[in-house]
Amino acid sequence: MTNVTTQPATVAPARAARRRRGPAEDVRDERSIISTMDRKSPLVRGVVAVAAGLVLVALVITCAGPLFWLFKAATSTSTETLAQPFGLWPSGLHWENVTAAWSTVRFGTYLRNTLIICAGAWFFGLLVATTGGYGIAVLRPAYAKVVEIAVLATLFIPGVVSLVALYLTVVNLPLLNVNLLNTFWAVWLPGAASAFNVLLVSRYFQAIPRELFEAARIDGAGAFRVFWSLVLPLAKPILGVVSLLTIIGAYKDFLWPLLALPDHDLQPISVALPRVESSTDLGVFMAALFVSVVIPVALFLVFQRQFLRAAGSAGAIKG
Amino acid sequence: MVALDDPPTAARAEARPVRRRRPSPMAWVRRGGLTTLVFFLPLLLTFAYFSWWPILRGLVLSLQQTNFIVTEWVGLANFERVLADPLLLTAVWNTTYFTLLAVAIGFPVPILLAVLIAEMRRTRGFASVLAYLPVIIPPVVSVLLWKTFYRPDEAGLFNTILGWVGLGPLPWLNDPDFVIPAIVVQATWASFGTAVIIYLATLMTIRTELYEAAEIDGASILRRFWHVTLPQMRGILLIMLLLQLIGTFQVFTEPYIMTGGGPENRSTTLLLLIYRYAFVSGDYGRATALSVLLALALSLLSAIYLWATRRWSTS
Amino acid sequence: MRRRTRRAAPVALLGVAAMILSACSGGGSGDDPTEGASVDTDAPVTISVGGQPTTENPEQLADFERQVEDFTAEHPNITVEAEETLWEADTFQALLAGGTMPTVMQVPFTEIGALIERGQVADITDQMGESEVLQQLNPTVMDVVTDGDGRIYGVPIAAYTMGLLYNRALFEQAGLDPDDPPQTWEDVRTAAQAIEESTDAQGFGTMTLDNTGGWILTTMSYAFGSTMQSDDGATATLDNPATTEVLEFYRSLRWEDDSMGANFLLNYDDAVNAFAAGQMGMFVQGADNYSNMVVNRGMDPEDFGVAPLPQTDDGIGTLGGGTISIISPTASPEEIAAGLAWIEFKSFLQYTDEEVAVAAAEARIADGLAVGAPGLPVVNDEVYQQYHGWVESLINVPRENFELYLSTVEDLPLVPEPSVKAQELYATLDPVVQAVLTREDADIEQLLGDAQNTIQTALDAG
Q: What is the pTM of this model?
């Protein structure tokens, strides 16, 4: 379930991206392969313009096109979608599909579950990553090295080895004899054991000048104080990245919640949608898909800079 | 790196006379050892329960047979049963084919796109947003959406398009020879944006002096791409290729939802096989044995890859 | 610093080590129920029972809760904890792994063989002897829960035989007589062509995923004249002329008539929903699907048609299946006795008590459920006739539409599912069915030969 391995080296671009501008930012005084000189040549300008135009058109058709079609199908009747897949609303907009998704597919329940899962995954993910990162990078007790290596090691072991064993662990927690199946804990906690997050955060903490901690200690601040009032505020950028990655990861996850939450009433939309696919009217189903897409897409369009920066720095890992 | 700077606790302890540093629990607590441990607890507990322990248990379980009432050690019998399954070869081949195809399309396309987008001046932000849009969609939704696109009858989206030019209808996912390419196209669509954004971020970090120097030497635009851009991106490209290989090797959601592994097991991947062993047949021993084999193969692949690329970059 | 490292590392690893120890010693000790000769049936005992309807079905839930209440009133020493647990292939093992399997739950006929083999179900032979009605079960279905030594591991509570389901409305649209359903496979083919031609629906269909393809192929093979396995389950016989004929039949419908639609990756839900929605004219399915189609999936009751599974001259009967109540392998003898009392109360009281039978039927009607839907009785004929007499006036399904089926259900022999590794057999046959439906040049001989080898190897491995 945890998305597979990653290389510590990918942390490097994270830093690079922090130092540099994000791709969406203003780029006027930058140069790339083609120089300002080149651009003076009409031939180069023409070729670049045509290539850029083609790329843009292709991107619009392939990336935005399917979403637009989904919107169309979500607001058309099933018959229309089947008879004229490319017909644009022959009988007007049918918003009733969306309401039907709420009543017949119980989409609201699944959406609520998804939100609960994301919120919990975010909270526990941050809790583990920040406290652990603080311990490894700042407090540095003698065993920190051992822990760090043990955490790092899990990055190199493909998640697939432990999938079945993780499931059996969750079904019956050793020592505690608790069954987490059909509780949100079963999704929150395994997700929080993310080596990538811990390392990302601890590397960031390491880069904080140690004099700051010394100064704080001389002022009489304890470990908790330093953590809460000094480290966390300084780490806001990386916490933003980790938050985004964790929440997106939790929203997208399928296999693990499928295994951990067999109870239909607890399932997130990603698990519920394939299950209800064949028993749901096509138009209603498309509406359910559409709503599932609209939320993250809307968030993305609002916070594009943060999203793209998080992706640029670390997106390869949570995918 | 712990050795580089003295940790604060150690620094304070060092200031005291050595004689008094008897290892006593009280002293440890007074030095803040307990507080430190409290900070480590969330990490230790979650990792112990949900990462370290399952990894160990997976290894142990591959040597056991259990019905959850009685558990017995069976040595390598689980591995033998995995190797004896005629489906194993099918799954290995399907997974390899899937991976190779996914990398053949999914590796070069984002590089080219990123380089082209990097050349756009006013529309770069818009293009990155577009490229990243499919990544934002939950994979399950994207898979289900494409499943409707791939409808095998005339009402299917792709078949409608084919119909305009007088072709089809094609069976798409129902065609044993086309099912994997069809899934690869969907999977690539859903993920190429990530790579584009990462490459774009890397492209922005290439020092402009390098281009200027190349330009002064009279290098054409294509030569600059070849001699400056690509070498500068080599590090990230090599890592991304490995990550893509490892990631696609564990493909599950797409075939699970789109085809259930069919037709004729032609889209049954290794992870799907593991899933069936464990969660359909209840044969956890066999499932973990296959998991361990897959993990070994992936680790070996990574090791060889890293070794080879290192050799190549030093030579 | 070095010294502290040595001390701290074991601390960090302690938890993991403790877990390893606990797991190695793990694996509980189930009571051996066969030892329990004397059982105190009055001692307080708590049992958990699965199969409670979900809140999505409020009527059925209310009915269930009423039953629990009545039961505990009658058996004050038994506490019943109801849960929604249902058998599902991918979660059942987890119930055992987590020790959360309810004392009583239901599993399909196909599962019981493997459960007995793996020791994952309680032996209830001794406690069965205590109950009168449980001695009067239909012997055909009792075979399914009895092992070679005559020990009993479950109580069949519902049974069905496979039939040919057809959509009466589509038959009419296609100019066919819905009261005269196809009785030979040639008729089926002609009817499928007619439906394909004159309606929007596909004529015939079959499921192909999640082992259902193999299940239906096995059913069809029975109708064409062969089983898939020797009676003792030691030898696979799936490479036989009858199965070849079935696949040829599929091939003609698919590639010559094109009357099986375009999508050949259908699981149970896909096919059942397509049929209920009028997109599929005919398919082979449990004849007990009336409630499933009409009550759960909104099919018009008048459109639901069921015919006996057509048989060739060599046909040996129709496949039967059903639901078995089993008891957790970790249950104590007292829990087994209490569990059986619950099973008897829940599923069999209506066969012994006219009042209960009528009240139950009335309650079902009030809740919009079906009374008298076609099915296969789990009790023996005598008991069933008596029951039928009690509720005859309450029947609310158009039984005249199933006349042919009802008049022959007793004549057509019931052939059980393969007794050993049925699910593996089905899983191996799924791709065979998919191959014939997706590749015009599929080599049936080769496919069956390979499948035969695979299954024989699995059977030999034991």
A: 0.83
